[in-house]
Amino acid sequence: MKRILFAASAVLSLVAATATAQTDIKRIGIYSDEGRTVVADAASPLDVEITVCCEQTIVGPYARYAQKYLGVRAPLVDRTSYGIVDARILLASDACAAECGAAAGESVRTLSYAGSATEFARVLPNRMSIVEQTPEAAAKQLAEDIFSLRRHRVDLITGEAGENVFGAGLQCALDKIDELEQTYLELFLGKRVETTSTHRVRVVLSEDKTNYVVARFSETAGVLPSDDLSGEMILLQIAPSQMQYPQSNPKGRLTYRYANRAQCSLSLGQQSLCSVVLPLFEFGRTIVVAAPVK
């Protein structure tokens, strides 16, 4: 049993070493591969992904009457705010592979009471009279309809009304009452909509530069271009590690580039967004060898 475990451990170590070598070592220069002439260079462009949530508050048409007729306070000013909910730093090749599995995009979640994310329901006024209703009179009538719906719900639940309504029919009636009530409440309390989007920025590294302003961010405008000074900068910092590399062979004919396992950190002001260690060829070393690296 111990021999089996040891053999399995050795195989896993070999696989891990092979995978690491594929990302940490690359042959460069001009050489022939299976009859083809290859001109290769080693680079590690990075993709920075920033996921932002936009929360939008839309004021209801009867918001100013919510306190008077419903006893609750409603937002009186439209408001839009942004916040960073996730961030990632990926090698460009890894980002492309991840994109094939699940493409970055945008999702909208409506946290309002009912209906469209941008439009309010239109409640028809009582046309038993030709007298035009003022907005306050319409709000008062709407509030009375809300309390009437609540009374009908209680009557259905307690059996005071609709004694022959039970089972699926009762649940259907209650769902319809809930839908109407939330539609009416929305006219007072407004809507709240969350939109989540992912922004991707490609960063081309240089061996003499360790700090990169990849974008800027504003709580009122979201992710902005790196040259837009109205937002706070999103900074990518590279910290190369102290690594030991093989010595070059003066008589060697094969050239390889070894990557450096560098710490990549993303920050917004004093806030750390994410940090990861990645193999970066720009901060590594070029080695000449006499035989292929295995």
Task: Give the structure's gist in a few sentences.
The protein is α+β, with helices and mostly antiparallel strands and 294 residues long. It has 5 helices and 12 strands. It has a domain at 25-44 and 205-289.
Using brief descriptors, characterize the structure shown.
alpha+beta; 4-stranded antiparallel beta sheet; 5 helices; elongated
What does this structure look like?
It contains five helices and twelve strands. It has 294 residues and is α+β, with helices and mostly antiparallel strands. It has a domain at 25-44 and 205-289. The strands form three sheets. Strands 1, 8, 9, 10, 11 and 12 form a six-stranded antiparallel sheet that branches. The protein has a four-stranded antiparallel sheet with strand order 5-4-7-6. Strands 2-3 form a two-stranded antiparallel ribbon. The model is unreliable at 1-22 and 100-106 (pLDDT under 50).
* Beta-strand segment tally: 12
Low-confidence stretches: 1-22, 100-106
Radius of gyration: 31 Å
SSE string: HEEEEHEHEHHEEEEEE
Q: Total helix count?
A: 5
In terms of DSSP E residues, the strand content is: 35-45%
Structural class call reads alpha+beta
Mean pLDDT: 80
Major sheet characteristics? 6 strands, antiparallel
Describe the secondary structure blueprint for this structure:
Blueprint: H1 2-24, E1 25-27, E2 29-33, E3 36-40, E4 46-58, H2 66-69, E5 79-91, H3 92-101, E6 106-110, H4 135-158, H5 168-189, E7 191-203, E8 211-218, E9 222-224, E10 232-239, E11 254-268, E12 271-289
Antiparallel strand pairs: 1-11, 2-3, 4-5, 4-7, 6-7, 8-9, 8-10, 10-11, 11-12
